[in-house]
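Try it yourself: sequence plus adenosine-5'-diphosphate, in.
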Amino acid sequence: MAINEMTGVCKNYRLGKTEVKALSDVTVSIEEGDFISIAGPSGSGKTTMLNMLGCLDKPTSGSIAFMKNNINEMKPGQLADIRNAHIGFVFQSFNLIPVLTAFENVEFPLILQKNKNVEERAKHVNEILDEVGIGELKHRRPSDMSGGQQQRVAIARALVKNPKLVLADEPTANLDSKTGENILKLMLEINKSHKTTFVFSTHDPMVMNFAKRLIKLHDGQIASDEKR
Ligand code: ADP
Ligand code: MG
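Structure, out:
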């Protein structure tokens, strides 16, 4: 099944009197189980494309269907419902809540979801923290963890609701290359074991090499899209 189908998507941003064409006529289908890298230089439209894939924003023109739901006609609350139910996000700068421990950061989305009790939450959170390899650090706050450890917490937080799709915007940009490689290996393992679909952006050739499908962006257009 297609997770997200974009057809002829354009996204323009208005900057004062000028209009920036961030995406032009992008047609792509993200399939269940994909492990995709969106690659391109800074300004090529990677973040804009992830925002579109993640139902964070609507296109200027063209259509987007997320699991067959037409995004174009949705209200902000409906988009939020789709994101909450199906999509996990990982960011370049980790974006953890500084006053919460690793455990609490990962538990937080489940508290908002309100459908698990304390014990169920703890069991699930502990399992995921173990899976991403930081079970023993779960009582630490982000400031007491390395960048790689923080990104593992962020991945656990993205996974905790068992999403269909995880979007990661330059997830290794603030990590050294060895740590970045380990983060990619972890995402690939989860892609294999949970069948979670991953789309991550990068401009780093080492990171692109992990992708099973590589989509290259150039000036907001898809320059190539190939299985590897
Ligand atoms: P990338 O993530 O590949 O660096 P972006 O998607 O962030 O690319 O940006 C694509 C283009 O759109 C760039 O020219 C950028 O300056 C512009 N852009 C992105 N977001 C905005 C915004 N909110 N307002 C105005 N211009 C934007
Ligand atoms: Mg970007």
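One thing you can check immediately is this: The chain has one domain: 32-55+76-213+222-227.
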